[in-house]
Write a structure and sequence with these properties.
Layout lengths: L5 H8 L4 E5 H15 L3 E5 L1 H5 L3 H10 L4 E4 L2 H9 L6 E3 L8 H6 L4 E3 L2 H14 L3 E8 L7 E2 L3 H10 L3 E7 L11 H20 L5 E3 L3 H6 L7 E2 L24 E6 L2 E5 L4 E2 L5 E2 L4 E6 L15 E4 L2 E6 L7 E6 L8 E8 L2 E3 L1 H8 L3 H6 L7 E4 L1
Parallel strand pairs: 1-21, 2-3, 2-10, 3-4, 5-6, 6-7, 6-8, 8-9
Antiparallel strand pairs: 1-11, 11-19, 12-15, 13-14, 15-18, 16-17, 16-19, 17-18, 19-20
The structure holds pyridoxal-5'-phosphate.
């Protein structure tokens, strides 16, 4: 019995594992952030497949919900946004190679000028193409990633001021560490940034946006909001690290679900999964769930809880590439029962923050490693 078309073939083949993405919650989170930052504009960060939530749908929703602009890491991501018809500004944060400049300029993508040489290359390319380039200057205030050191920033500002074919639409930096319990480095970076900006503010002919805050800065250091903020993880309803006050009324956007596909009784002392890293302390019931590290559900999450029939149950033994085992003790579970790996069931909830805390994996990695093998199901 073969399905008639590829479309039905995919539906026909589907495992019960899926990631449910609430576009309504995403919209709500954008609005919560917007109202918290007041007059600052919001650049919604959608890099890495919208933090694993699905690139196109997330970008479209954020544009229609009123985001000022979108932020991505690579030119390919920006081109995809233009291809699907995104009209608002798109900034690429990542390092630039001059061969890419024609694509940036032709597709009206905002470029990060992170050195004097790159600024000169952007100006040269814009002049050669006879079009204007939109540029954000990048100042390094302590991350030691891309960007001109704050103490050398006048050289980049001078190069930008000389440019005839470029619109300098922003100047930005990025925090290395925003921990609510110790904001000293973030404060120092903000001060370095504002001090270095003075040189440019005295000379610039056109207005531009000053920005430094990502999710952590938005929540813990309101002085850093400036003209624009760049939330990523907070948009998806997840806190960047423990210790943040819940100042934003954000809610989780992603729910990760599967179903029980196998039930067995494991005898006391029997090892479960590869390497027998866990053995049953007494006779127990173990169910198998069709998700594993091949889907991006990392092996480090072994030992975390899932929800089945409203109860928390631990993952036991090593997580396999495509399957994992859950100890339900003397509890009941049947083939087809819903399993929640992230999200709510009954009165309980497994959050990305909880998984991160337990596994030592950052909440960012838990989200972005979920790969294309897990179908995304979007709801309003
Ligand atoms: C990824 C990124 C962000 C978003 O960071 P979150 O911590 O997810 O809010 C903002 N700005 C830059 C430059 C980034 O690379």
């Amino acid at each position: 019995m073969f399905p008639p078309s590829e479309q039905t073939f995919i539906a026909f083949q589907q495992r019960p594992t899926s990631a449910h993405v609430s576009l309504g919650s995403l919209r709500h989170n954008l609005q919560a952030i917007q109202s918290f930052v007041g007059t600052a504009k919001v650049m919604a960060v959608v890099k890495a497949n919208g933090y694993g939530h699905g690139f196109d749908a997330v970008a479209r929703e954020l544009e229609s919900a009123g985001a000022h602009s979108l932020g991505v890491a690579y030119i390919e991501e920006a081109l995809e946004l233009r291809r699907i018809g995104i009209k608002i500004p798109v900034l690429v944060f990542g390092g630039l190679l001059k061969e890419q400049l024609e694509l940036y300029i032709r597709h009206d993508i905002d470029v990060t000028a992170s050195s004097v040489t790159k600024m000169a290359q952007i100006e040269e390319a814009a002049g050669r193409l006879g079009r204007r380039a939109r540029v954000h200057l990048k100042i390094d205030t302590g991350l030691e990633r891309i960007g001109v050191h704050y103490y050398s920033s006048p050289s980049l500002f001078d190069e930008a001021l000389r440019a005839k074919h470029c619109d300098i639409v922003g100047v930005y930096s990025h925090f290395a560490d925003v921990r609510p319990e110790d904001l000293s480095l973030a404060r120092l970076q903000l001060e370095r940034f504002l001090n270095s900006l003075r040189y440019y503010e005295e000379r610039a002919q056109a207005p531009f946006l000053r920005h430094i805050a990502a999710s952590g800065g938005i929540m813990a250091l309101t002085d850093s909001h400036l003209d624009l903020v760049r939330p990523g993880i907070a948009l998806y309803g997840v806190y960047p690290a423990p210790g943040f006050e819940p100042v934003l009324s954000i809610r989780p956007v992603l729910k990760l679900k599967s179903q029980v596909v196998y039930f067995k009784v494991v005898k006391k002392g029997a090892g479960v999964s590869y390497g027998h890293q866990w053995a049953a302390p007494q006779d127990t019931r173990v169910v198998t769930i069709p998700i594993g590290y091949g889907d991006g559900y990392l092996r480090a999450l072994s030992g975390s809880d899932v929800l089945i029939r409203g109860s928390r149950r631990p993952i036991v033994g090593a997580i396999c590439m495509d399957q994992l085992m859950v100890n339900i003790g003397q509890g009941e579970a049947f083939n087809g029962d819903e399993v929640i790996l992230v999200g709510e069931q009954g009165q309980d909830r497994v959050s990305v923050e909880e998984l991160a805390k337990r596994s030592g994996v950052s909440p960012y990695e838990i989200l972005v490693t979920l790969n294309q093998r897990v179908p995304r199901v979007f709801s309003a």
